[in-house]
Amino acid sequence: MPQKPASFAVGFDIGGTNMRAGLVDESGRIVTSLSAPSPHTTHALEQGICDLVEQLKTDYPIDSVGLAVAGFLDPECEVVRFAPHLPWRDEPVREKLEKLLGLPVRLEHDANSAAWGEHRFGAAQGADNWVLLALGTGIGAALIEKGEIYRGAYGTAPEFGHLRVVRGGRACACGKDGCLERYCSGTALVYTARELASHGAFLNSGLVEQITLDPNALTGKMITTAARQKDPLGIAVLEDFSEWLGETLSIIADVLDPGLIIIGGGLSSDADLYLDQAVNHYSTRIVGSGYRPLARVGTGQLGGDAGMIGVADLARQSVLESI
Ligand SMILES: [Zn+2]
Fold it and tell me: What is the CA(231)–ligand 1 centre distance, in A?
């Protein structure tokens, strides 16, 4: 029997600064990957995508391309309506790129792509009703219901990051104030550290010294590193973060009642600093606490590759469905 030829799909993770293209096989393994800066005009961005596919095509047979996009798409995943860090505005990206590449193209929201990766090949295999909560610069979220991506009537669900949880709270880039992601994300760690440092006395805190030196240079990573080194301000910031994450988990559980919540995104690699505490808060704050099963809470297995792997698999499935 002749062996079936290997099938590869390219999964793109298109961020505001860089785009990565992973060549993904049928088992969700990234065989090789390329990256390039994300251009700031529509034409250059689309050309940049084509260039990376061309480079991968010289060595591998490619049957489809998937794009994980940080932005709002229409429910049919044809049009990028708005992406805050990308030039596309109401652009029929899927059809345009399909013509330019001469290959089938699948478009998907970045959090949905990452959730699909974990669902097919990672931490959520076998879970039918579950939520991905991606904690990074902001909050990304995806809901898998009965094994399918849930997107709502107009393609924007679920958008937990911009739930207004504090009236008159911290200003958000979306134009509102008091949004959840201003309290429970990597950016939130920085806000909280500055606020706590201005109110309280934290003796022997290197973090306070750093804030005094240059408050604008502070990053979420500096805070988690400080907490790991038992810096008193770092620990206080992570305690505050854990409480907010507990609130967030309880909101998700009360609204959607999932069986599993997976923490993904850049902050998930520091979950040992906050997750147990957050789950303790969550378990006491859901309605009917003590009289209902708790959703399992864990971290993703695919890390920053989840989006590329997920959208490549979705692209491959679209081809199979069209045959
Ligand atoms: Zn907001």
Answer: 30
